[in-house]
Design goal:
By secondary structure, the chain is of the alpha+beta class. The protein has 2 helices and 10 strands. The protein has helices spanning about 5, 110-130, and strands at about 10-15, 15-20, 25-30, 40-45, 50-55, 55-65, 75-80, 80-90, 100, 105.
Length: about 150
């Protein structure tokens, strides 16, 4: 079981579904009509933009909050009622928490964003200290921008 599965998700709800993130990936979950198939979906991902349409209806369109690695991004239709998109972040540190999915659109409220930053900081601590389990830890203090930076010698 990975850190995200053990610690839970911090999603931000939108009119079309929700989005959430880890240090490496932004997940976009788009609710679609039951019976939707892959051929009904158009998902155009570039390094800096995302367009998702279902049966010709645009659900998401705009400039991404930050750049992604297009060759590592994937999307799939699950159970005929959900489009799951995995956007692989170009910059993968705990300090690179996306404030919104798109520039000026779907911006997480302050509480949700703080929880996202805490989770990414704990994920960073887990990677730096694999013998410990940070999945149920609580974090107070300096967790913004990836948390404290410790000197390594």
């Amino acid at each position: 079981m990975n850190f995200d599965e053990k610690s839970g998700e911090i999603p931000y709800s939108t009119p079309w579904g929700k989005w959430q993130q880890t240090i490496d990936t932004v997940y976009v979950l788009v609710d679609v009509p039951r019976g939707t198939r892959g051929r009904d979906v158009r998902c155009d991902i570039t390094a800096s933009s995302l367009i998702v349409s279902v049966n010709g209806e645009v659900k998401i369109s705009g400039k991404l909050f930050a750049r992604v690695v297009v060759d590592d991004c994937v999307w799939t239709v699950e159970d005929g009622c959900l489009v799951r998109i995995a956007l692989c972040k170009s910059s993968r540190t705990a300090g690179d928490c996306w404030r919104s999915l798109l520039v000026g659109q779907f911006e997480a409220d302050l509480h949700t964003f703080n929880e996202m930053e805490k989770k990414l900081t704990l994920e960073r601590f887990q990677r730096e200290n694999p013998g410990f389990d940070f999945s149920k830890a609580d974090l107070t203090g300096n967790y913004h921008a990836g948390g404290p930076q410790f000197k390594t010698s």
